Amino acid sequence: MKRTSTKLIALLIIIGFVMAGCSDDSSSKEGDAVTLKLGHIQSENDLWHDGAVKFKEEVERLSEGNMKVEIYPNSTLGGDRDMAEGMQIGTVDFALVAGVLGNFEDSIQLLELPYLFSSQEEYNKVIHGEVGQEIANRVLEASDIRILNWWDRGPRHITANKPIETVADIKGLKMRIPEIKAMEHTWQAMGASPTTMAWNEVYTGLEQNVIEAQENPIPFIFGGRIHEVQDYLSLTAHKYEYVTLAMSDMTWSKLSAEQQEIIQEAADIATEYENQLVSEQTDEILETMKSEGLEVIEPDVEAFAEEARKSHSEFAETIDIDLYNRIVEALK
């Protein structure tokens, strides 16, 4: 009896490993349909999720149901780095990720320098031009992560429990930033005390005063309900922001040419859709947060920009000064 129980347990363990192996195949098939996973760190209330839903709908429409996309919001598939590494090994098929890609390819970090761009137009000129394509190619070569397109997020601003009106107001400020070296370098040079923290820990971190401030685009601040635990929003517009709709190149290589074409077309449609949402709804979202008690500050942005740009060249020297100079030249 004891021997039989041991064999049964061993058999169950083997079955468990087999099932786990099957579940790791993110391109699993249900009948003839290929099912792909898309993850992001925001809630279902965020514009990212709306864009992800549009992408899912377009993939399924264009493939006539032969390709399906499952969406995993709220860091269900892990944080940015977890999802990026998942795309490298093929356990995550798509993810909405941004600056974390700089951990795999340095050149994309140049886009993360606060006050590199002074307007949405400048940002678009670079990101959708030759430099943006070159950076995407470098990311693919270095990481096996394919950037399908760049989504707009609008400019990043600072929230805090005190008004941020001048550069002096950020001296020593314990401000959460994502794991992005360019941002850390610049904020430190300006006198702040930047602290990296996973997005799903930020609300609690602010609530418990582990951190004093954070910075993000207006729709992202609203999606994370940050205005419930912060009193002030300072319109610093320190970074015109993107998020990539990225894809595992391992998954891409398993698809037929027709399926790849469908994925790219759906990505382009979803990009236009999400960008339009950001353009149309950001002001409305800001008014909603103001009506819920958030006080808006309009600081001297040029003074912030002048201070930030003093450290740009120093950082660019550690990455690719020639590429940085090309970006600056493209903005003229």
UniProtKB/TrEMBL annotation:
Record PANTHER family: C4-DICARBOXYLATE-BINDING PROTEIN DCTB, PTHR33376
Leader peptide range in chain numbering: 1-20
Biological process annotations from GO: transmembrane transport
Record keywords: Signal, Transport
Record protein name field: TRAP transporter substrate-binding protein
Top-rank taxon: Bacteria
Protein source organism: Ornithinibacillus hominis
Coiled-coil annotated residue ranges, if any: none
Family membership noted in the UniProt record: Belongs to the bacterial solute-binding protein 7 family.
GO cellular component: outer membrane-bounded periplasmic space
